[in-house]
Amino acid sequence: SDTYVTTAAGTCIVHQAPAFGEDDYRVCVKFGIIEKDGTGMVQPIDEGGCFIADVTDFKGQHVKEADKHIKEMLKQKGNLVFNGTEVHNYPHCWRSETPLIYRAIPAWFI
Asked: What is the model's pTM?
């Protein structure tokens, strides 16, 4: 459990994507899903925000554009639990006001 998820809103079903957010990363490390050094972390998007070849159904699609296709596939397979919008804070570029995508990358700082 963690404080950023509650039973007061949404479906109470939460996915974890440690390569795309600080909270997800912290929770996945805490529960041993990935290692603190990133071992076990999956990175399915490229530098442009598009799915890589490993994601065969959505290869080359930008993650924001793929949302509707992912929902449709889940619906077709009978796996869509809920289709709605949850309003929450989301980071945007201060210059262009476009949504940002968190993406874990290896880096060294000196």
From this structure: 0.75
